[in-house]
Amino acid sequence: MKIPIVRLQVVKENEIDYGGEMLNIPLKAVQLVKKIIGESDREYIVVCCVNSAMKPTNIEIVGIGTSNTCLFGIPEIFKTAMLTNANGIIVFHTHPSGEAVPSKLDELQTKRLLKIGRLLGIEVKDHIIIGEGDKYFSFLENELLAA
Predict the structure, then answer these.
(1) pLDDT digits (tens, 9 = 90+) for 29-46
(2) How far is CA 93 from CA 2, 5, 85, 89, 96, in A?
(3) How far apart are CA 95 and CA 136, in angstroms?
């Protein structure tokens, strides 16, 4: 009986220009992610990995769902961050309804992400809900990042 020897790697699919700015202001982060997902009729889950200076190191679309839900697992949220030695992550999800108001489930998921991020040593810098046009909701700006 044999056991496979494996190697994990991240594959760069594409790249976008972001101007070299820090993503320490949620609006800047929203503008960056909207370059990738635009306005969509389906829910997206996106993770942006950042270094200690809050500059993005990579972005992954973790999931694309339906008009009102997108299933994801905690491992998918942190996988790329772990593989790329990210200092932190910003988690985004869209509300195709256009409203950027967090649901109770959004609040519970954010608390779970914060706890697991602490265990892994990967800080969740923000969780941002993207609505229609310029609408967004930042858990950081609204002081809701305490687990």
Answers:
(1) 999 999 998 888 899 999
(2) 42, 35, 22, 13, 10
(3) 9
Count other C-beta atoms under 10 Å from residue 16's C-beta. Answer: 9
Neighbouring CB atoms inside 10 A of 72's CB total 16
Tell me the whole-structure pTM to 2 decimals: 0.92
Each residue's pLDDT tens digit, 93-112: 999 888 899 999 999 999 99
**Bridge partner residues of 48 (DSSP):** 59, 90
Q: Which domains does the chain have, with CATH numbers?
A: 26-138 (3.40.140.10)
Q: Are 80 and 10 in contact (CB under 8 A)?
A: yes
